[in-house]
Amino acid sequence: MAKKRSAGGIPPSRGERVFEGINLFILIILGALMLFPFLNLLAKSFSSTTAITTGQVLFLPVDFQLGTYKYVMNESQFWDSLKVSLIITIGGTAGSMLVSCLTAYPLSKTWLYGRKPLILFFVFTMLFSGGMVPAYLLMRTLNLINTIWVLFIPFLLSVYNMILLKNFFEEIPQEVEESAQLDGASNVRILVSIVLPMSLPAMATIGLFYAVGYWDNYMNGLLYITTPSLRPLQTYLYQVVTEAINVDEALSMDAQENAALNSEAIRAATIMLACIPIMCVYPFLQKYFVKGMRVGSVKG
Prior knowledge:
Number of strands: 0
Shape: globular
Number of helices: 14
């Protein structure tokens, strides 16, 4: 059997094989540590009350049942919050990508007048902010409190993501754009027809960053939303997890019908259902995500 060879054609030394083996072992341990809590929640969401309260559930369901999922899916608040999260994730990601591209592309050009001061201005906002109270007062002054717009309009631009995108645009050969300019293409046409198609790995990665950020954000719902029907899914999930007494009260209202249900199992089922949408999207973007992780790492 032929020995595995390195990129230069030289067989790896014993020290390199040991180093790779240790790295692989560490990665397996870290992966297991991240996977086990997920499996435990999944098992609890399908297990009976008796099995959970007696501590029998570890990574496999005990006394399999689907009552917890039926209970969660019958809650109108769950569907209202899911709809809000889908709206702000799709709309917010699209808006954020538009604003990021329109900001990053001109800043990637060395001929832009005042480029360095503008970049410093954006970086300054990464280091300093007004704080939570001034942000709330601003949202109230703009009449955005208790509206769906407050959940994504004020947060359309992430300076960190914009800088990553700018760095990627800077790596695109200038000759490609110059040839398009000679053919009479405008800057907007060059951006839409040439730069963005060449930047699909970066676009997919930044888009995934934005989508996960909008989907996982619960704090904005806590700060700016008091109307239950406008709360995003993660805010609803936060309340279900932290306010366990409310779940217990809801179960006790119909104790006979909900006798087989457990508040811990309901929380686990809610978490699992909240993870499904983002887990369905990730596999389609994974091939771009791996490439896009190198965004801005190589300067031309």
